Amino acid sequence: MEKLNLAERDQAVIWHPYTQMKTASAPVPIVRGEGAYLIGENGEKYIDAVSSWWVNIHGHSHPYIAKKVSEQLNTLEHAIFAGFTHPAAIELAEGLLKILPRNQAKIFYSDNGSTAVEVALKMCFQYWSNKGEARTKVLAFKNSYHGDTFGAMAVSARSAFTAPFENLLFDVEYIDTPNAENIGSLKSHVAALSPQLSAFIYEPLIQGSGGMLMYEAAYLDELLSACKQNGIFTIADEVMTGFGRTGKLFASDYLKNQPDIVCLSKGLTGGTMALGVTSCTQHIFDAFLSDDRMKTLFHGHSFTANPVACAAALASLKLTLQPETMENIGRISTKHGQFALKIKGHPRLKEVRQTGTVIAFEWQTSGNTSYFSNLRDDLYHYFLSQGIILRPLGNIIYILPPYCISNEQLEYVYSKIEEALNITGKDQQSVLH
Ligand SMILES: *Cc1c(COP(=O)(O)O)cnc(C)c1O
Questions:
Q1: 65-320: CATH, from 3.20.20.140, 3.40.50.720, 2.170.130.10, 3.40.640.10
Q2: pLDDT tens-digit profile of 189-242?
Q3: pLDDT at res. 242
Q4: Closest ligand 1 atom, CA of 274?
């Protein structure tokens, strides 16, 4: 019998995320990672220009993180986190509270971004329930994305991803992202709805899955002020924007108003392991203190505060706080800015936008501009054939790289984007396919 290759063995047994298994091309086996590269079976190198779904910040198989994870594995791999604790969880909570917005006082651990959001929502809903008030609605932005579990889906924009579950999702009030024109009416809208509103959840400055949509800190700040004035909790979903993505440690650092709750995951462990964090203020924490056991936050996962994940996060945090990392973030932001200036006004581009290390290119399209357009698949395969992993969101290509990516690697990615833009009409049909 002929030996099956990795892709064939995969296809026999695996169901992949966000993948139409009938039409998807065979998955690309990756056997090694090194810096900004993912390396295939036969040694082919791919520049991971999307940080493996936005999680990687210091590069793949980072030796310092590997060392710390390995030490932790040999010391304590896991321990129940109800009634018990361990040094890695404590040190990480202490370390995060040092850099999070100053009003943050307590760290609740879970497993990923979606669960970090679930915990944030439960904190807010139960806060009001513990106080005997019926505030059950959530305010969220149009085009928002907060995860794939039911609560996280409910507060995300309704889209093709949520359509099959639409009747099962709780009610959410959606508003536009704020700008100079609409901020006045948004504030009065929020005030009018406030008696029912428990919380406002938002992706600060960049709406990632919505298409790397960007909006200004100043108007978000005004909206947050309106929420505070009306007693609505603010939840900063920094799952993607955390740990330097936007040019500062947290996108919330661009704002005067501090959020009541922060959700973290993705870059938290440097992209090494699954871990989620929901931090909150003392005020929220205190509303759960009671002799009445019913006021307890009844939430926990088997692997809450897994020591190995916490060790990875501690190692990543240490790397993040080294001056070189902030220098790299600045370097990438500057390079992106220069390329944006160069490419702006290209007839094939509707818009170029950039915040920190994230740059997005929105392509002109005729007709079908959705997530499902052919342009998306064509571009994806074109870049892959050039040794670059870019996963367009519909007609939007974006670069969201690990901070260790070199200038040469960035320039190579830019040059291939330019090349793709300059392939025209009929050529596009043949070359991109
Ligand atoms: C990815 C993401 C999530 C969900 O995180 P998972 O770890 O994939 O569950 C939530 N919020 C934002 C802003 C995200 O980008």
A1: 3.40.640.10
A2: 999 999 999 999 999 999 999 999 999 999 999 999 999 999 999 999 999 999
A3: 98
A4: 7
Burial of 136 (0-12, 13-18, 19+ CB in 10 A): middle
Expressed in angstroms and rounded, the spacing between residue 238 Cα and the centre of ligand 1 is 9
Protein residue whose Cα sits closest to atom 10 of ligand 1: 146
Ligand 1 pocket, residue 203 CB under 6 Å: yes
CATH 3.40.640.10 spans which residues of the chain?
65-320
Just give the CATH number of 6-61+323-432.
3.90.1150.10
Given this model, what pLDDT does residue 195 score? 93
Catalytic site residues?
Answer: 18, 145, 237, 266
CB contact at 8 A, 358 and 381: no
pTM of the full predicted structure? 0.96
Tokens of 150: 């039911």
Q: Is the CB of 265 within 6 Å of ligand 1?
A: yes
Q: Ligand 1, from 18, 265, 275: best to mutate by most atoms within 8 Å of Cβ?
A: 265
CA atoms within 13 A on the CB side of 430: 2
**Helix-helix angle 63-73:307-320, to 10 degrees:** 150
- Per residue in 389-414, pLDDT (tens digit) is 999 999 999 999 999 999 999 999 99
**How far, in Å, is the centroid of ligand 1 from the Cα of 203?**
10
